[in-house]
Amino acid sequence: MTSHSVLAKALVFFFALLALFAQLVAAAPAADLHKRDVYVPPVLYPHSGTVWYKGQRHNVTWDVSDPPVNITNKFGMILLRKGDITTPLIFAKGFDILLGRIEVTVPWVLEDDDYSVVLFGDSGNWSQQFTIKE
Fold this sequence. Notes:
The structure is a single chain. The chain is an alpha+beta fold. The strands form two sheets. Strands 2, 4, 5, 7, 8 and 9 form a six-stranded mixed β-sheet that branches. The chain has one helix at 3-27; strands at 43-45, 51-53, 57-62, 75-82, 85-96, 101-105, 112-120, 124-126, 130-133. The longest helix has 25 residues, at 3-27.
């Protein structure tokens, strides 16, 4: 057998598998798919000029006045952002994004004035920068 005939047989086999896979994908039910909207509610608090002190409790708030009918991800998560970097520090997670507020405890971080909170649901939306002090 020549190398060309082995290559030809391999290509036929590959395209046969590809065609089978395409048939399986096409046969998958699409009736369960629903239109969903990305929801990006603006963070209202904290805002510019806000000063938080380590260990205090505050309500992070966001505007829920105009949510879409079908939200892609209804479960929220709030992270701390420092400058242009979102840190792995999680304030809260698993809450209903339509609550509009969640209470958090100010973490023990370096004192600075370039912090913001990131509200995740469908996508990330962060607050204005604020200050954390001791």
